[in-house]
Amino acid sequence: MILHALALAAVFATLADAQSNDLVSAAARGDLPAVRTLLASGADVNAKRSSVDTRTALVFAAENGHVEVAQALLAARADVNAQDAGGRTALWIAAASPHAELVKVLLAARPDLEIPDGLGRTPLFAVVNLRQNLDALRLLLEAGASPNAMGKNGATPLMLAASGDGPTSLAMVHALLAARARLYEGLRVCRGSGPGAARLLGPYAAAAGGTALALASAGGSTEIVETLIAAGANVDLKQCDGKTPLTIAAAGGRADVVRPLLAAKADVNINDASGKTALMLAVENGHAEVAELLRTASGRP
Predict the structure, then answer these.
(1) What's the predicted TM-score (pTM) here?
(2) Does one domain contain both 192 and 300?
């Protein structure tokens, strides 16, 4: 009789596992009737695809933008904070998609807004990186997501938004600043450097580095540069290599950026670590218009 009971238990366990796998598959394809039937039959709402693939039905629903399926799973007490193998939650995945309605549904389940992926990026990073879903950004900020979260490379959502050049990136910069994003969050003091020098850990250091304004000076729009200056960004803050937003813009031939920086009294005489000024960099890179702007500002012929 004991053996018979054990055999029955094994059969039921196998059936439960099959139902759970079916639930994950149904959620992935957006089959709402099947999801409801399986939940009513006792399928584990938080079952993972496998020990290696740790995605739950809710994570699959988020990946494929199935809002109604996500609602049904949450109503059945799905773990809104479940993560895939890369550390991404359903909210993180939804934030990285155009589905603002899905973000809204997930936020109603009161998720942890600061769970990072494997690179230390919170859902706010995901929505900024997409540069499309302004509504989702606002929803996250209104729910209390930190605008000063920092990835493992030291970057912040403001830095990421500032490096964009479209109207959505500009709107995101405005929204983040309104949410009290700090202009210098993410900076690290350079070892052996003097005061005022700063660096950003990770790939941003090589690309433009240091601050949101430095990133905007390299690849952002004129409007973003002007917005950051108006918010109080230090136009003369150096990176570890001694470059300032002005020298970055000058080296890149960004006359549109050089003008507002000069208007904000950026110092044209600062030398980088190699002893070069913004004018030297402009001349060296063949940017005649920028060189003329800098000569005029410095009073040189």
Answers:
(1) 0.86
(2) yes
